[in-house]
Amino acid sequence: MRSPHINRAGRRTIPDRLQSRTLSIVEEPTVSKPPITLSSLDLDRIEALLAAIPASVFPNKAQLQSELDRADVLAPEQMPATVVTMNSTVKFSIEETGKEFCLTLVYPRDMDGSTDRISIFAPVGSALLGLSVGDSLAWPGPGGKTMTVHVTEIIYQPERAGELHR
């Protein structure tokens, strides 16, 4: 396991992010992506899922793997309370439509047909993972059209609640 303050590229990490940033995914190489932070537990679980699923079943597999590769990784108990982690309930909007949502980010096995959950493998779910309150991220949406997801509030985060192995 990596040191809690070293990312996958071996760079030191700074978990406190006070500024919002906007990401443009491919078209603008000069626009930087907002930093993302993942718990080591979430990273291990998602990487295991990605290893078991073919790209033909999950079209955004390469994009999600790329995001995992650039993430700052921390131990679950060190996760900032303002970061979207797995099983977090998050308020966010889609900037292109102005629609607002409040959903819980879950693993595919936890999808039960309810309308208050979103899978990490859904385009919006992949976009939300690791973002902080105030961050925006342009991401391929359903049908390939780009959508910009903006995180407005974390209602519940397991790590903040002391549920470090959820």
Instruction: Quickly give the CATH architecture.
Output: Roll
**What percentage of the residues does DSSP assign to strands (E)?**
15-25%
Could you tell me the radius of gyration in angstroms?
Answer: 15 Å
What topology, given as strand order, has the largest sheet?
A: 1-7-8-4-5-6
Bulk shape: globular
The CATH H-level superfamily is: Transcription elongation factor, GreA/GreB, C-terminal domain
The chain-level structural class is alpha/beta
Number of DSSP E strands: 8
Chart the SSEs and their pairings:
Layout: E1 22-23, E2 37-39, H1 40-52, H2 61-70, E3 72-74, E4 89-94, E5 99-106, E6 117-119, H3 123-128, E7 136-140, E8 146-156
Parallel strand pairs: 1-7, 2-3, 5-6
Antiparallel strand pairs: 4-5, 4-8, 7-8
Describe the structure.
This protein has helices spanning 40-52, 61-70, 123-128, and strands at residues 22-23, 37-39, 72-74, 89-94, 99-106, 117-119, 136-140, 146-156. The protein is an alpha/beta fold and 166 residues long. The protein has a single domain (22-156), classed as Roll (Chitinase A, domain 3), CATH 3.10.50.30. The strands form 2 sheets. Strands 1-7-8-4-5-6 form a 6-stranded mixed β-sheet. A hairpin with a 4-residue loop joins strand 4 (89-94) and strand 5.
Core attributes:
166 residues, alpha/beta, Chitinase A, domain 3, 6-stranded mixed sheet, two-stranded parallel ribbon
